[in-house]
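User: I'll paste a sequence; please echo it back and then give the predicted structure.

Assistant: Echoing your sequence first, then the prediction.
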Amino acid sequence: MSSTAITNETALREWISSDEPRWLFKHSNACGISTAAFDAYHEHLQVHPEQPSAHLVIQTHRPLSNLTAEILGRVHQSPQLFLIRGGEVLWTATHWSISAAAMASAWDAHAA
């Protein structure tokens, strides 16, 4: 499993605009709920390493987190997970709604 770290605006815009379905996870490294969600995210990606995935840490890249909310037209939350394609949100979840099972269902319903 490999999740790409998003660390600049160019990478974020390229990731979001791709025509290929992909995951984007906004993570807080200071929140227990976010840590649990990040573990679930990694659990899913270990089983599905072919699914493109990226993350950004809001403490170190808050402007990118805010830009993500702006581009995708969503209120900022953390943790927050998006399944996106071509700049469109296909599915999203936050907090305890982020699970490996939810991700598998979302991918099957929206990206497969």
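The mean pLDDT is 93. The domain at 4-110 is CATH 3.40.30.10 (Glutaredoxin).
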